[in-house]
Amino acid sequence: MKGQEWYQATEVAEEYEEKRFSRGGRLIDRREKQAVLDAIGPVEGKRVLEIACGTGRFTVMLAERGADIVGLDISAAMLQQGRHKARNAGVADHLEFMRGDAARLPFPDDHFDTVFAMRFFHLANTPASFLSEMRRVSKDQVFFDTFAGPSTRSLYNWLLPMGSRLYSLEDVQKLLGETGLSLVDSDHDWVLPYGFYRKIPDVVASRIRDMDTAIGDTMIGDQLASVSYWNTSVE
């Protein structure tokens, strides 16, 4: 995995949400959470696994809605932040955080109704192996996002110390074919890359986001999108 040592550093975990989801980054946080909720639907009573749960943004959100959820991450520092968030939200007794490797999930086959990962596959050196594990432990649904290429994300990648793995539609279709997953639906968004929004104040970001969304709603919107959300089912 790209940036594995960086990601596990305590100082990175402590600053992670402030750096990514403050200012215009709040728009990203809201959109990602809505994408997860739209894909999974009603979660009460569902057994859910979140891969690379990080600081527990989605894990806690779904626990608050009644999911029986496990958040797995390789970073102990990130998990500590997630547990703190769960305690503050009053759901610490309704979820489980585990440290583990997404390439070797410590669960039996078909153990969860839904398995999902956000902000994960852009760092994966061998995405098929990770997706195969997600498919193995899910009996119904696998949901994940990718950064798209070519897009404005391609330009933004040049500025990043680790870069990102970018996926075309053909790349994702190949991945699904290799791992026994069927595409249910997909959504494509964000003409401008995430990094742009994180650098500007809320008010300005909201106005630019309105223009971004308007372009996304046109006939060429999907081709310009820098982020894709993939909802798939187990064959």
Automatic annotation (TrEMBL):
All residue ranges annotated as the Methyltransferase domain in the record: 48-140
Single annotated GO MF: methyltransferase activity
GO biological process: methylation
UniProt name for this protein: Methyltransferase domain-containing protein
Pfam family, one: Methyltransf_25
CDD domains: AdoMet_MTases
InterPro entries xrefs: Methyltransf_25, SAM-dependent_MTases_sf
Coiled coil: none
Keywords, ordered alphabetically: Methyltransferase, Transferase
